Inverse folding.
């Protein structure tokens, strides 16, 4: 039944590949069980194929990657080299849980030494350093993409009659276990606390409490905006360019959040039948909020998550900085699930997107580099595409909610096909006929059964209880009378 489902999803030629990929993803568990139950087997200590939690993958050739030979891989190469700076500088983490680990170091060293100035050489570089694996969530054929951008909004460094909404920096009483208070850029997931006294920790204030002034008057204001909708969109995107009254620009980036999960306001509008699903976009959300200020206040507070910012020293010419710490490249940078993927990983994303207009289906076939993350970006084939700054970028990013096909580029040092050739297989099971002629018993169960039988023989059973006739039938009568009386 599973094979039929896979054949329907991927075609008869690819169903076998998917089954092989599922087996590859389960090899670490099977081999661990084999080693634990059969320690005497002469298996060497091998490097097992990597696994991606909740994901399935199967090898493909470069010719099977639609649009690979038409893409401009030179732009992707420049973005990849930017990611290589922090990759080559990092120390080996203890117990790296992600599939690629530190394997991107070898391609990064090659990229640093390479002199590449044209598309053909850039494409040859990726083909020489990586192998392509089609990847998706387990049981699904496609991944899913959304878009994001850097808003450009008006603001002031001081509070005025026009600019009344504060943009807060991280409060000093915000606490995350295991993270130093002075660290830059706290995790965007997990619990966040505030200290009361020396020891007591309670959940941090939610959006409604902060909007009502829970942290006001503490000197945390970075700047002031015109309305809460501008602030909400800056928080959703994680960064913003604030055009100040004197003509200069302030750049703000994500620094911390209050510990509550992000609730998409667009989803609430869809569930309330206010905006149809096929018309949902950030532009429609903003329109509705501007036309319904009271409803916007209630809707906004349904998202209890709240983001705190820090001011960063970037000019108008600089792009926003992603979670990896490098400037993002419009049209080439993506945000991914950082619990599964390593920053710097190349992904080829292929499909059709409404780039030109809401109704258009523009072919999108590009090599992208993972350089950012987001609390709503969860899963092995889930990406947020970065489109740059400004209104036009926001229009494109705001209408993306589409299924796309993902190909993950894996360094050849982790080639699962090569490793799979040396993977030990379990001991072959006997045929049904042989098993019937020579029944096998579990040694552990046999020993336990023997011990129980011996113990039963060693301990004498007690004598049967004698049968004793009831002596006075009148008790039953008195009980009956008493029972009726109670009724």
């Amino acid at each position: 039944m599973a094979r039929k489902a896979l054949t329907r999803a991927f075609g008869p030629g690819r169903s076998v590949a998917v089954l092989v990929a599922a087996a590859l993803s389960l090899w670490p568990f099977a081999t661990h069980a084999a080693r634990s139950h059969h320690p005497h087997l002469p298996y060497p200590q091998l490097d097992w194929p990597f696994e991606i939690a909740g994901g399935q993958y199967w090898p493909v050739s470069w010719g099977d990657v639609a649009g690979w030979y038409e893409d401009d891989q030179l732009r992707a190469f420049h973005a990849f080299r930017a990611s290589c700076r922090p990759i080559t500088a990092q120390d080996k983490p203890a117990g790296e849980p992600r599939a690629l680990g530190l394997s991107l170091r070898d391609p990064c060293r090659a990229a640093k030494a390479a002199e590449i100035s044209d598309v053909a050489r850039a494409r040859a570089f990726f083909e020489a350093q990586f192998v392509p694996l089609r990847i998706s969530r387990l049981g699904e054929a496609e991944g899913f993409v959304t878009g994001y951008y850097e808003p450009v909004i008006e603001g002031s460094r001081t509070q005025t009659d026009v600019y009344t909404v504060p943009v807060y920096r991280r409060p000093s009483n915000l606490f995350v276990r295991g993270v130093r208070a002075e660290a830059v850029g706290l995790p965007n997931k997990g619990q966040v606390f505030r200290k009361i006294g020396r020891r007591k920790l309670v959940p941090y204030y939610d959006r409604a409490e902060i909007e009502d002034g829970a942290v006001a008057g503490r000197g945390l204001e970075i700047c002031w905006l015109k309305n809460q909708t501008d602030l909400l969109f800056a928080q959703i995107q994680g960064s913003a360019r604030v055009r100040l009254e004197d003509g200069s620009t302030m750049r703000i980036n994500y620094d911390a959040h209050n510990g509550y999960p992000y609730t998409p306001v667009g989803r609430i509008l869809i569930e309330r039948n206010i905006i149809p699903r096929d018309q949902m976009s950030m532009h429609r959300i903003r329109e509705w909020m501007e036309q319904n200020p009271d409803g916007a206040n209630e809707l906004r507070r349904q998202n209890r998550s709240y983001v705190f910012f820090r001011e960063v020293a970037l000019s108008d010419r600089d792009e926003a900085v992603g979670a990896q710490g490098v400037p993002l490249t419009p049209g080439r940078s993506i945000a991914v699930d950082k619990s599964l993927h390593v920053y710097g990983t190349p992904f080829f994303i292929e499909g059709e997107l409404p780039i030109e207009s809401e109704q258009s289906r523009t072919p999108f076939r590009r090599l992208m580099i993972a350089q950012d993350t987001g609390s709503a970006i969860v899963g092995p084939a889930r990406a947020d595409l970065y489109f740059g700054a400004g209104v036009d970028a926001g229009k494109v990013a705001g209408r993306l909610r589409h299924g796309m096909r993902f190909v993950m580029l894996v360094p050849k040092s982790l080639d699962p096909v090569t490793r799979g050739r040396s993977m030990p297989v379990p001991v072959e099971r006997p045929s049904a006929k042989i098993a019937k002629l020579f029944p096998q018993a579990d040694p552990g169960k046999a020993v336990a059964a023997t011990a129980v039988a011996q113990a039963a023989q060693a301990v004498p059973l007690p004598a049967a209880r004698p049968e004793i006739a009831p002596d006075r039938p009148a008790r039953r009568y008195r009980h009956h009378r008493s029972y009726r009386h109670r009724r």
In short: The chain has a mean pLDDT of 82. The first strand starts at residue 55 and ends at 59.
